[in-house]
Automatic annotation (TrEMBL):
This is CPAF-like PDZ domain-containing protein. Residues 175-284 form the CPAF-like PDZ domain. Residues 1-22 form the signal peptide. Keywords: Signal. Residues 42-60 have a biased composition (Polar residues). InterPro entries: ClpP/crotonase-like_dom_sf, PDZ_CPAF-rel, S41A_metabolite_peptidase. The lineage of its organism: Eukaryota, Fungi, Fungi incertae sedis, Mucoromycota, Mortierellomycotina. Residues 29-60, 337-357 are annotated as: Disordered. Gene3D superfamilies: 2-enoyl-CoA Hydratase, Chain A, domain 1 (3.90.226.10).
Length: 668
């Protein structure tokens, strides 16, 4: 297999990109599952007679998959191998037990998810993750693939971008379309159009009238509503699914990315998509049947289903790593979602000059970039495309240098572009918040928070209290909100939980607390005090497409809800609301990290390690808006932007055009 690591944006990411949210549901798969060669019953094909005379002849569908030149791989090759993985009931029982315990006793939104249907911009109905998983436990499976797919669908149903169930076994091949799509508004009308045709047939901006015979916009909206996860807002989901420009740190350019509809880690419904296009140069329509192309994401060798299971699926022996150094706040909180580059990586056109002729690049960091608009010299654009730079402290200095450069250039108004920022360090997020709105009180940029409490978690917390190496359930890292800004000086936070009834379920919770953010150093606060925009909402705007998650959502919340900064939300469905941010209300942990905490404390975790290699993530600490009673994750009102914008063929392909458009309406 040819490793396609280069397809993955960030070098720091392991070989497998997590596309955790382009998730199949049982309904989507019901029709495709039985294939002509490998039926629902995996064993029938997994045991095709080997050919002893010719060792090069593959022995089963996984052998076939490994023997084919990657460029000739088809949808069916992958599906047939996945279907050939034998169902192992012991493995399934362990897996389900662990996932069930995780979502019952550790996941922080299990009860909140049962809430009544939320107001706009959300559209989440009450969701019972425990019930869904128990239903899987009662179902009879013969297909390992279907079993894992059903768990994935159950987790995806939460609509929480922090909750992911990713099993290497079934996400080792990506599926990609040559056409990537977007939904611009032209003359007040929204239609789906081709954003990019990577097969270079020139279909860009042809209107996509239908997908699989259905109205294209309705088709995508249904996919956003029923299949895709990541957010409680179906219009934010739509933006995640569609093509967009994303900042690429390697090239230093905004590059086209296909979106999660046109590039997936999970198996699509069928081997191709049918499109009917209407192009400007012709009255005829163009009918296209576009097969999914396959992008292998693994370099592991295998020769048949058995070795695929052994080498690709099964977890290697666990290496017990101590928890991230430096404690919770300095942890580089990985966003759950990953964005991969365009399927057929074309070399980015050699940059023959600045990407944006009328925006001067002033300062460039690894998470933030500072542009100055030439035609509107009072306006600076602060692009913050991630909160996950390699060095958070270094990036803080970049931010100071960028703001200082704005000041030197006589900038008075700042547009913060948060599009495509799916989070990272909450320390950096809190820092950025305070660089524009310095704290008046020490906890201004902190969230009231709480955690689920269970017996095994209390055991861990008790040991953690005297040893910070045991992970994040350590009372010393949390502020006693009844005692100023002091942290707990005993373990009562976890030892004396309160019982809360949420949506009919009673569970133990910590009292409200807050993470202990270090104060921003004086050198920063002194510098920003002289900037003309500091603490002035009228001089600051946010631009977002809802693809602003986790730490990005947290910063957006503070600026919009507490400081009244107006936000412009772009994309989604014309005429409908759109969230400013997604999955903002929690902190995320990996199952493997939680297991690591237990191991380092020499405690037996109530969760058995999964037999399969996995990336399972969950929200463990929930946050609240100041003075709010619903967790921020579910507090729909706080997600509504003041202003809406639509994509156009021009602004979707040039941030410069988009910035000027916002600037023109924001500061007349
Ligand atoms: C219209 O443009 C498309 C894409 O460039 C091209 O493939 C097609 O041949 C053109 N049709 C006509 C009638 O010019
Ligand atoms: C940005 O990343 C590059 C490459 O990893 C590194 O050399 C540089 O020091 C980083 N800059 C900052 C400000 O962290
Ligand atoms: C900023 O404004 C000052 C005072 O008007 C002026 O002297 C200076 O040249 C301006 N700087 C830039 C970079 O335009
Ligand atoms: C932590 O250590 C101190 C001193 O040994 C001890 O008094 C205290 O009970 C310990 N706390 C917990 C929660 O175990
Ligand atoms: C928190 O602080 C309050 C006020 O000082 C105090 O009464 C309470 O015992 C503290 N809680 C814990 C768990 O230490
Ligand atoms: C409250 O915080 C102070 C430090 O600010 C500490 O000395 C005191 O013990 C704390 N009180 C309680 C009850 O935790
Ligand atoms: C955990 O167990 C190992 C092996 O038994 C031992 O070396 C280590 O000191 C123990 N650690 C703690 C924190 O008890």
């Amino acid at each position: 297999m040819i490793p396609l690591r280069s397809l993955i944006l960030s070098a720091s990411i392991a070989a497998l990109a997590v596309f955790s949210n382009a998730v199949p549901t049982p309904t989507e798969f019901a029709s495709i599952e039985p294939t002509p060669t490998a039926g629902h019953e995996p064993t029938s094909t997994a045991t095709t007679e080997p050919n002893p005379g010719n060792p090069a002849t593959p022995t089963d569908t996984c052998g076939l998959l490994s023997s084919i030149n990657p460029t000739e791989l088809k949808y069916q090759h992958v599906v047939d191998c996945y279907n050939a993985i034998p169902f192992d009931s012991a493995q399934a029982t362990t897996t389900l037990a662990t996932v069930l315990t995780l979502f019952k006793d550790y996941y922080v939104f299990t009860d909140a998810a049962l809430a009544r249907t939320a107001p706009e911009p959300f559209a989440n109905a009450p969701y019972d993750i425990v019930g869904e998983l128990e239903r899987i436990g009662r179902s009879k499976y013969t297909s390992d693939y279907k079993f894992h797919r059903d768990i994935l669908a159950a987790v995806t149903g939460l609509g929480d971008g922090h909750a992911a169930y990713s099993i290497s076994c079934y996400e080792s091949f990506f599926f990609t379309q040559d056409l990537s799509l977007y939904a611009p508004v032209v003359d007040g009308e929204q239609s789906v159009r081709v954003y990019l045709d990577s097969a270079k047939r020139g279909y860009e901006d042809c209107i996509v009238e239908t997908i699989n015979g259905e109205n294209a916009l309705s088709y995508l909206q249904a996919y956003a509503r029923d299949i895709y996860g990541t957010s409680h807002d179906p219009n934010a989901r739509l933006n995640f699914m569609l093509a967009s420009q994303t900042y690429d740190t390697a090239s230093g350019l905004f590059t086209d990315t296909p979106g999660d509809f046109s590039q997936r880690s999970t198996v699509p419904q069928g081997p191709y998509l049918d499109y009917r296009l209407k192009c400007a140069n012709s009255t005829d329509t163009v009918k296209l049947r576009e097969e999914w192309r396959i992008l292998p994401q693994i370099e592991t060798a295998f020769t048949d289903a058995a070795s695929y299971v052994a080498n690709v699926c099964i977890a290697p022996p666990e290496v017990v790593a101590p928890p991230a150094e430096g404690g919770l706040l300095r942890r580089r909180d990985e966003p759950v979602r990953r964005i991969t580059k365009r399927a057929k990586p074309e070399p980015t056109p050699p940059s023959t000059g600045p990407q944006f002729p009328s925006a001067d690049l002033l300062v460039i960091g690894n998470a933030t970039i500072f542009y100055h608009l030439k035609d509107q010299p009072t306006i600076g654009v602060l692009v913050c495309h991630t909160f996950l730079p390699s060095d958070v402290e270094a990036e803080k200095n970049v931010i100071l240098a960028g703001l200082t450069a704005f000041h030197v250039h006589n900038v008075t108004n700042i547009l913060v572009d948060f599009q495509g920022n799916t989070g990272g360090s909450i320390d950096l997020s809190s820092f950025l918040v305070q660089m524009l709105f310095p704290n008046k009180g020490p906890l201004d940029a902190a969230f009231p928070s709480d955690m689920r409490v269970s017996k095994p978690m209390q055991e861990l917390a008790k040991l953690s209290y005297n040893n910070s190496d045991y992970g994040y359930f350590n009372a010393r890292d949390f502020i006693n909100l009844s005692n100023g800004t002091a942290v707990y000086e005993n373990n009562d936070l976890f030892d004396k939980p309160v019982t809360l009834n949420r949506n009919g379920r009673r569970n133990l919770w910590t009292e409200k607390t807050s993470l202990n953010f270090p104060p921003v150093a004086a050198k920063y606060m002194t510098a920003v005090a002289s900037f003309p925009w500091t603490a002035k909402a009228e001089n600051i705007r946010i631009l977002t497409d809802g693809r602003c998650g986790s730490a990005c959502g947290m910063a957006s919340y503070f600026w919009t809800a507490l400081h009244n900064v107006p936000a412009y939300a772009i994309g989604g469905t014309h005429g409908e609301d759109l969230s400013m941010f997604s999955f903002a209300g929690a902190s995320v942990l990996k199952l493997s990290e939680l297991q690591g905490f237990y191991k380092s404390a020499n405690l037996t975790s109530p969760l058995t390690d999964l037999p399969y290699k996995n990336t399972i993530t969950f929200s463990w600490l929930e946050m609240y808006g100041h003075g709010r009673t619903t967790p921020l994750e579910y507090d729909a009102e706080l997600y509504r932007p003041k202003h809406r914008l639509g994509f156009t063929p021009e602004n979707a392909r040039s941030r410069e055009v988009m910035w000027k458009e916002v600037a023109a309406t924001a500061w007349k």
